[in-house]
Amino acid sequence: MSALAHTSFGADWLELREPLDLAARDPGLLARFGSCVEDGVVQECGAGHGALLRAVAPALRGRVHWHAYDHDTALLAELSPRFTRWGERQGDWRPLATDEDGEPAGSATGRWQGRRAQLAAQTHVVDLAQGLPMLEASAIACSAWLDLVSADWLTALGRQLATAQVHTLYLSMTINGEIRFTPASGEDELLVSAYLRHMEQDKGFGPALGPAAQPRLTQWLDEGGYALDWARSDWRLDCAHAAATRHWLRGLATAAVAHSPMLREVAEAWLHRRRAELAGGWLQVEIGHFDLLATRN
Ligand SMILES: C[S@@+](CC[C@H](N)C(=O)[O-])C[C@H]1O[C@@H](n2cnc3c(N)ncnc32)[C@H](O)[C@@H]1O
Fold first, then answer.
1. Whole-model pTM?
2. I need a labelling partner for 147 at 20 to 30 A (CA). Which of 58, 140, 204, 290 fits?
3. CA distance 208 to 149
4. Angle at 129 between CA 244 and CA 210, to 5 degrees
5. Is the beta carbon of 68 within 6 A of some atom in ligand 1?
């Protein structure tokens, strides 16, 4: 079977990427986001099974209500049990019975008591291509999401934000298009360029921002009156993350071929070589990402 035959970006991929994201996130911005949402209501776009909630949980304070939006029912159904298992491993969080914290029973998918915060999480199966249903939220957050949406989707969200009380946006783990292999090879540029073009294809929101997300965001948030704090959150893939690196390499090759079918042979040979280098312990890949904290009064 061709090495490019099967690529999945489902729950298995989200699990593989979670430790990479955790290591890459800018700790200062993550901590500030945690303080910004003290006693607040957060809406998270494309929440998957809750990796961002687990990442920020140690920085939460007060009573926080977290609304997780995704169109994947199975991923969202995992959010609460995963948080409970994670919280038990941390030793910091215990699940609360339905109305133990004074909230009406049935209004949340899960509730937990931490050392410094009480958390209620609610999941919403929603196709966000139709827009984000606005609640009275103090913050909007996302992780590995913004490069999927289109400029038009951002503009529509901007219109909603103009009349909303959202004072914090934490937009994290967005790719910036920079990919560097060590050792470099002659085919990298060709394949990476096809991969990035593939990223710009419509993911259901219109043409995806892909690596153009950063300049678009700057303009969009400046106009919305937000103060912006940027930080790099690059992934560093190598043999210490062999499964994730293999998966990502295959994803790159598959996407490059999907965009330019004439690259199939080049991509297969390249993938074979890169996997051998990874197994030998001498491949490193840096994948540029950024985190952004945007705030306004
Ligand atoms: C790259 S994953 C990131 C998931 C999660 N934030 C994480 O870091 O593990 C993108 C997420 O966006 C969700 N998604 C994609 N298109 C969507 C849409 N139209 N409406 C709602 N969710 C969507 C996917 O189901 C997936 O969970």
1. 0.94
2. 58
3. 5
4. 45
5. no
Atom 22, ligand 1: which residue's CA is nearest? 70
Angle formed by the axes of helices 11-24 and 242-259, nearest 10° = 110
Q: Where are the domains of the chain?
A: 11-177+205-234+289-295
Q: Is 48 in the pocket of ligand 1 (CB under 6 A)?
A: yes
Ligand 1: does its nearest atom lie under 6 Å from the Cβ of 143? yes
Average pLDDT, the chain: 92
The fourth-level CATH superfamily of domain 11-177+205-234+289-295 is Vaccinia Virus protein VP39 (3.40.50.150)
Q: Where are the alpha helices (DSSP H) in 126-263?
A: 151-162, 188-199, 213-223, 242-259
Q: Is the CB of 127 under 6 A from ligand 1?
A: yes
Instruction: Calculate mean pLDDT across residues 202-225.
Output: 88
> Are the C-beta atoms of 63 and 154 separated by less than 8 Å?
no
Strands (E), 89-183: 94-95, 110-113, 117-125, 139-143, 168-182
Least confident of 2-11, 176-185, 272-281: 2-11
Span from the CA of 265 to the centroid of ligand 1 (angstroms): 31
Q: How is residue 237 written in tokens?
A: 């893939």
Reported as a single tens digit per residue, the pLDDT across 60-89 is 999 999 999 999 999 999 999 999 999 999
Round to whole Å and give the CA distance between 198 and 204. 14
Of 122 and 3, more confident: 122
pLDDT for residue 238: 97
80 CB under 6 A from ligand 1? no
Q: Classify burial at 135, counting beta carbons within 10 Å of its beta carbon; exposed 0-12, middle 13-18, buried 19 or more.
A: middle
Average pLDDT over residues 241-270: 97
Task: Quote the ligand 1 centre to 46 CA distance (angstroms).
Answer: 4
Task: Kindly state if the Cβ of 83 falls inside 6 Å of ligand 1.
Answer: no
Q: Could you tell me which residues are beta bridge partners of residue 47?
A: none
